[in-house]
Amino acid sequence: MPNILEMIDKFLNLKFAGELTVEVVCFRLVLAIILGGIVGYEREKNNRPAGFRTHILVCFGAAIVSMIQDQLRLNILDLARTEGSAVASVIKTDLGRLGAQVISGVGFLGAGSIMKEKGETIGGLTTAAGIWATACVGLGIGWGFYNIAIVAILFMIIIMVSLKRVESKFVKKSRLLKFEVKFFDSDDFANGLIEAYEIFRQKSIKISEIDKYQDEGIVTFTVSMKGRNNISDVVVSLSSIKNVEYVRDV
Hints:
Blueprint: H1 2-12, H2 22-45, H3 52-83, H4 85-88, H5 97-105, H6 107-113, E1 115-116, E2 122-123, H7 125-143, H8 146-170, E3 174-183, H9 189-202, E4 206-213, E5 218-226, H10 231-239, E6 244-249
Antiparallel strand pairs: 1-2, 3-5, 3-6, 4-5
Family: Belongs to the MgtC/SapB family.
Membrane topology: Multi-pass membrane protein
GO cellular component, one term: plasma membrane
């Protein structure tokens, strides 16, 4: 038992490694799988576009990249010891270059998780940010900054789980939606508009924009909906207006 504790203490206090042994590499990769999996599980459970395996691979890949960079650093140090600093100065490595490419390159995964949902609502932004943050955690693991990586994952879970409940309770989000209303008789267009206005007013729905096509008897309402307002309920209410042929959300 003491040997295990000493090993854990050694790994957790390891920053810049003197040598990337097989044990160190395996420990870092396993830790990347575990921490990436924790975030991925939370996303998978909520049916997000990027889930368990995606986050594991992002964290895993980022850890590999930073270990490669770390190995380059070690190789240059060895070269300086054996061949002299004059030779080593010819070969230089930017310690942050590969990591910077990971941080910018992982953006394509984040972009793939962002989707336009119903109306003008955009979804997947939290998942995209989570993928980016997971890549940063992987880089930290690969460099050996385990304390930063573990604390970062804990805070990420708190942000994605606990703050989601706080947000849903205190922050009333609005959705931009469009409803297209078609009237049978374009001559009764004005009366239909008045009734539609009244329905939106009763439901405390703010009208952002109106597009009228009176010759076709069509009007499109762009509205901002908050709270408990249900799309189907609005459609039913608008359909009850006299002279309405159909109502649909677009």
